[in-house]
Amino acid sequence: MSPGRGWGPPPGRRPPWWPEGEPFPPERWGRRGYCPPPFIRWIGCFVLSALALALLTGGLLGALFGHEGFHPIVLFPILVIILIAVAVGGGVRRMTRPMSNLIAAARRIESGDYSAQVPEWGSQDIRSVARAFNSMSARLKTIDEQRRNFMADVTHELRTPLSVIRGQAEAIADGVYPADEAHLAPILDATKTLDRLVEDLKTLVDTDAGNLVLHKEPTDLSALIRDTVESFRSQAESKGVVLTTTIADNLPPKDVDPSRMRQVIGNLLSNAIRHTPSGGSVKVTLDSSVITVTDTGEGISPELQPHVFERFAKGPNSSGSGLGLAIAWDIANAHSGQLAIKSDESGTSAKLTLPTGP
Questions:
Q1: How far apart are the first and last CA of the chain?
Q2: Residue 246, pLDDT above cutoff 50
Q3: Which residues lie below 8 Å from residue 187, measured CB to CB, with a gap of 6+?
Q4: What is the C-alpha separation between 344 and 348, in angstroms, rounded?
Q5: N or C: which end of the chain has fewer CB within 10 A?
């Protein structure tokens, strides 16, 4: 050990046992901008009050039982003691009331009342806790309302195909309808609707849970769009809708999930064909990283346009489940892309923009 140097690490160097993230050497209370924590200040005030109370009590006892006898001046210490007791009691109530409010509100939330809120007053720490509690309760209330609406919407969507299946099956079993292709077709269509609904719900659940897995691979979007459009060709022709494509030449492959991308384009095509009257047209355009589906249909009402990507959002004349665009939005976001929709009385245009590059 060198002369003049004591044991331990050099000055200014953090010892090995010092906690990580803590400044060394520790700041002292006398430095500018630093003061003890609030609870330390409360303890100090309490100790000082207790000492003052003890001194006043000793003086009072000395005055009462001293050799000089009782003197009216002893009433002053009594008054001071009473004032200190009232002040300490008020301070304790002021400190405990916010915590009592938090406890009462927490019990309301525990019982299922998510509208519970607490006033944001008190010390800075208490206000921060109250603000966080109010934010949490508001979020819980929103989630609970969404859950209730989701269950109601799912029940409504399941009821229609199940009613069709039951009605047709009972009519065939009772001999009202013959078991031919014409009367079995509604049952098959209803089962397909149920199958699509179940798949859509599974996709939404995977998205909410963060389990939507993308199997990306270099994909020729030109071939994918042509194949998807051809799969909707018969549906468009049966409705009298002209289905066309415009695809740029020599486009490089894109690193996407082909199955999910086909699902997005299929949802956009299905909506476009469904809402385009006979004699109208639906056009799919691919240019670099942008896929656009444009129709000459009835358009989306201005009231519904801000909610088109919400779950179960659909117009009064829509026969779909209202989940297609919500799923397309989630898949686009999972690909780091964007999905935007513009609509007016002349038709609707849905634009899917994928990230640039391969």
A1: 64
A2: yes
A3: 164, 165, 168, 169
A4: 6
A5: N
How many Cβ atoms from other residues are within 10 Å of residue 175's Cβ?
A: 8
Q: What is the pLDDT of residues 210-231, one digit of tens each?
A: 777 888 999 999 999 999 999 9
DSSP E strand stretches across 196-238: 217-219
Alpha-carbon dihedral 243, 354, 220, 213, rounded to 10 degrees: -110
Strands (E), the chain: 217-219, 242-247, 254-256, 281-287, 290-295, 338-344, 347-353
- Length of the chain as a residue count: 358
Using the Cα atoms of residue 140, residue 143, residue 145 and residue 148 in order, give the sign of their dihedral.
negative
Tens-digit pLDDT profile for residues 65-114: 555 555 555 555 566 667 766 766 666 666 667 777 888 888 888 888 88
Residue 263 to residues 223, 225, 326, Cα–Cα distance (Å): 15, 11, 12
Residue linked to tokens 């179940």: 198
Interstrand relation of 290-295 and 347-353 (parallel, antiparallel or unpaired): antiparallel
Closest CA to 219 of 251, 250, 254, 261: 254
- Cβ pair 149, 143 in contact under 8 A: no
Whether this prediction's pTM lies above 0.70 is answered by no
* CB atoms inside a 10 Å sphere around CB 335: 21
For 132-176, write each residue's pLDDT tens digit: 888 888 888 888 887 787 787 778 778 878 888 888 899 898 888
Residue 119: predicted pLDDT: 87
The HSE-up count of residue 39 (CA atoms within 13 Å, CB side) is 3
Contact criterion met (CB below 8 Å) for 94 and 42: no
The first and second tokens of residue 37, run together, are 């924590």
